[in-house]
Structure formats: C-alpha cells, structure tokens
TrEMBL record:
It holds the Pfam family S1_2. Residues 218-275 form the Conserved virulence factor B-like winged helix domain. This is GntR family transcriptional regulator. Signal peptide: none annotated. It comes from the Bacteria.
Length: 279
C-alpha cells in the first residue's frame, strides 16, 4: 500500500525529460524529479522514495531523506517565519509548515522545537504542530515496573524533563534520575520506575539493578585497564566524581564494586581500587 508521508518502494513505469514516473497504485503515476533519479534507473527499477505534496499540491516523490515521517515526533529547526507560519528544515527541499494555529508559543527563526508531523484534513498537505498534547494519549499506558521504553525529551521543567514514552504517553524524568548530560529533543532508552495513581509515569535512565551492575562492571574493568590497573574512585569516592566518570549514582557504583570484589576481579583499598592479576 502506498503511504503519503512515508518511504515507499515503487517501480518505475515511465521515463521523461522531467524525471521518471513511479507506479503509485490508486494515486496513479507519481513523478520523481530528474535531480533525484539515481544513475542507471530504467523502466522496471524499484526505488525507495518519500512521498509528499509539493508547493503546487501535486503528489511528488523524492530520494532525499526526511528527518521524520507522518505520525512521528521530531526535533526540527525553524528556518523561516512569514505570514503563513513557521517553516522547519526536515531534510527535504520543501520546508515543513507549522501553521500559527498549531504553535503552542510563537516559533522563532533559528531555534529548535519538538513537533508532531500530521496531515491536514482539508489540503492533505503534511504539516507540523508544537501542540503535542493533541497527539499524545490522555489515557495512562499499561506499563510494568522497570519496563524498558523509548523516550523523547520534549521540554525541561523545575522537576526534570517531560518526555513522550513510546511515542504515545507522557512521562516525567526527574533530575535525581539523571546522571549524564541530556537535552530537549534527545531520544533515549529509559525505564518505567513507577506508574502513579493519577496515571502519570515516573521514569528513570537507570536499568534494573542487576542489569545496571552487569553493564557497569565492564566499564569499571576497562577504566582500570586504561589506568594501569588503579583508580582513586573507591567505595568512598565523591558521588560527583563517580557521576562524572561513570554516569551513575554512588549506590549503583558501590554495588558494582562489591560484585567485582566478590568475583575476585578487584581489590578495594583505602586509596582506591586495583585490578587483580589473573592467576
């Protein structure tokens, strides 16, 4: 099925001076302009193309790479503002419009915003909106505690970051759950720490304890190997120093050192930790 606002693999059915025409099924023949036609393309060739409406409302194909597809959230930069609205760079020659009635706050040229890409019901054109609440489910998601999820950070608050969970639900990533640099618009792997009675989802970037320790053990051993088998970051090290080097809490770090010590891989001394030589 041919889908507007998405990538489609379509067959070339006709060559012309303007480019090539592709079999668009119910949409008929769709032009891929000459400047986007790969060398060696002939009738019968199958091409991976993105479909959208051009400035003349004609359905057109491109081999350019769109930064997001219909129904997706993305962080995009404003490249122009005029009487029609704000225009975003989304990787295609034709910029993506954010109409004024779809702007939560007035958009400024040069700044980046998290937007949702939708299709206008009347014009069928693709457009974007910063009114994200319209496109995120009001119903709480059904999550298990410490379930692995995909996150998109949308804005910073006094509590931490507001995030869209699995492209569908709202969640909050609190400051005390962040042990590395993050930014608005960043996509991350996170975990559901708790689902509140009101349906709100509290998030963390820290994996379940056992998984976190397994991952950190490898990092600690590599850190020691890279530093002649010694590190000042022992079990009494400053939490900020641990966070700076390993991007984890002191609690997780101490648990990891204990695991490595019990396994006979390190020694824990008053001045730091040492890598034990293999027998």
């Amino acid at each position: 099925m041919v889908r507007i606002g998405h990538y489609n693999r379509l067959s070339v059915v006709r060559l012309s001076d303007y480019g090539v025409f592709l079999d668009g099924g119910k949409f008929g023949h769709i032009l891929l302009p000459r400047k986007y036609v790969p060398a060696g393309t002939e009738i019968g060739s199958e091409l991976e193309v993105f479909l959208y409406f051009d400035s003349e409302d004609q359905l057109i194909a491109t081999t350019q790479e769109a930064k997001a597809c219909l129904g997706e959230f993305a962080l995009l930069q404003v490249v122009d503002v005029n009487q029609a609205g704000a225009f975003l760079d989304w990787g295609l020659d034709k910029d993506l419009l954010v109409p004024y009635n779809q702007q939560k706050v007035p958009l400024e040229k040069g700044r980046h915003y998290v937007v949702y890409i939708y299709q206008d019901r009347h014009t069928e054109r693709l457009a974007a909106s910063t009114k994200l609440d319209r496109f995120v489910s009001e119903r709480p998601g059904r999550f298990k505690r410490m379930q692995k999820v995909d996150l998109l950070l949308t804005n910073k608050t006094d509590l931490g970051f507001k995030a869209i969970v699995n492209d569908s639900y709202w969640g909050v990533l609190y400051h005390n759950e962040i042990f590395r640099d993050v930014r608005v618009g960043q996509r991350l792997t996170g975990y559901v720490k708790w689902v509140r009675d009101d349906g709100g989802v509290d998030l963390t970037l820290n994996p379940p304890a056992a998984e976190a320790v397994d991952q950190l053990e490898e990092q600690v051993l590599k850190h020691l190997a890279d530093n002649n088998g010694f590190s000042h970051l022992g079990d009494k090290a400053d939490p900020d120093a641990i966070k700076r080097v390993f991007k984890v809490s002191k609690k997780v770090y101490k648990r990891t050192l204990g695991s490595l010590f019990k396994a006979g891989k390190i020694s824990i001394d008053s001045d730091g930790i040492r890598l034990k030589e293999k027998n």
